[in-house]
Specification:
The protein has helices at residues 57-86, 94-104, 112-119, 131-141, 144-152, 156-168, 175-183, 188-202, 207-220, 228-238, 248-258, 270-289, 297-308, 313-320; strands spanning 8-11, 19-25, 29-34, 39-43, 50-53. By secondary structure, the chain is an alpha+beta fold. The protein has two domains: 8-86, no CATH class; 92-321, no CATH class. It has a five-stranded antiparallel beta sheet with strand order 4-3-2-1-5. Strand 2 (19-25) and strand 3 form a beta hairpin.
Length: 321
């Protein structure tokens, strides 16, 4: 363990809580941040139940860093909730969101109404709001072979139009704000955009770097205001098990409860995208604990949309209460 790394502990009677660090220490008690996400108070006289654990330096540094992030996130969340309480504002819990979701879709993600109206099975499967239709269009137009064929044949305009069609295929993106600026690209800009799309979606290197490079390219090509859906909708539709479509209006609202440490930016950034990914993964865990089983990240997005969009706030308050 590095000299400046906090010590790791494990509760001898509750190993299922995971490892822990000391979060705060008072005169007669300590608070420990555990890997299961909870802070627990241990009174003096019971400290012996927390046994020091040795790990290799790199693993210890990683675990301590993750626990410190959890501790800081909980502290930020607590301050935000206290401020909201003082100001008379309501920040809804995931439990309340689940209640609203089940009020509309009693069988959760397996509900027939959810399958028809949201995922798009049966006769209703061609509506713009249907998620499975959008996934199919993205897989058809922006798979790696298709993108390679567009570029190898010099059909850069075709690739630009395919990207626009994917954005236009779902109500997660806006035709005017998200698709139209891409449609306006022309000349050498279309060529550069085509190569940029391939590097972003299928290139080598870590995603954060590819993400940042794609944003920089869009701005260099004259897209003054790259949007979150413009960048993340194709990524999320092509990789619904790994990535997320980001609609900032509802993700910002969701983050007030689950990830208040995220500092929203109008222009997409790799750092904020990573924060939203962690938040959505955490939400998925909480949904599974509530016996809702999302099939993929599109289900997690849809849960956020169905319970956090402005039109359902009053329903959320009445059903949750």
């Amino acid at each position: 363990m590095s000299a400046d790394t906090a010590a790791l502990y494990q509760h001898t009677r509750r190993p299922e809580w995971g490892l822990a660090i000391i979060a705060t220490e008072n005169r007669d008690s300590r608070e420990y941040q555990f890997q299961d996400g909870k802070i627990r108070t241990i009174k003096e006289g019971y400290y012996h139940l927390l046994e020091p654990i040795e790990k290799p330096d790199d693993e210890s540094d990683r675990i301590v860093g993750e626990l410190e992030q959890q501790r800081d996130r909980l502290a930020t969340r607590s301050r935000m909730l206290e401020r909201a309480k003082r100001e008379g504002k309501k920040i809804f819990t995931v439990k309340e969101q689940v209640a609203l979701f089940l009020h509309r879709f009693p069988a959760g993600f397996e509900d027939n109404l959810y399958a028809e109206e949201v995922r798009g099975t049966g006769e209703g499967g061609r509506k713009k709001r249907n998620r499975d239709r959008a996934i199919e269009i993205a897989a058809e137009l922006l798979n790696q072979d298709s993108i390679n064929n567009f570029i190898d044949n010099g059909n850069y305009e075709g690739l630009r139009d395919a990207y626009v069609e994917v954005l236009s295929a779902t109500d997660i993106a806006s035709t005017s704000a998200d698709a139209r600026p891409v449609k306006k690209l022309e000349g050498q800009g279309i060529v550069d955009f085509a190569h940029g799309v391939r590097a972003f979606l299928y290139g080598d290197g870590p995603l954060p770097q590819r993400f940042s490079n794609f944003i920089a390219l869009l701005m260099a090509l004259g897209v003054e205001k790259p949007t979150w859906p413009m960048v993340t909708v194709p990524l999320g539709l092509l990789n619904p098990q790994e990535h997320f479509c980001i609609k900032p209006s509802v993700y910002r609202t969701q983050s007030r409860r689950l990830a208040p440490e995220i500092s929203y930016t109008t222009t997409p950034t790799a750092a904020v995208y990573s924060g939203y990914m962690r938040m959505a993964v955490e939400l998925g865990k909480q949904l599974r604990k509530a016996e809702l089983e999302p099939k993929d990240n599109i289900d997690i997005f849809s849960f956020i949309w169905e319970t956090m969009r402005p039109g359902v706030r009053k329903q959320l308050e009445s059903v949750g209460g």
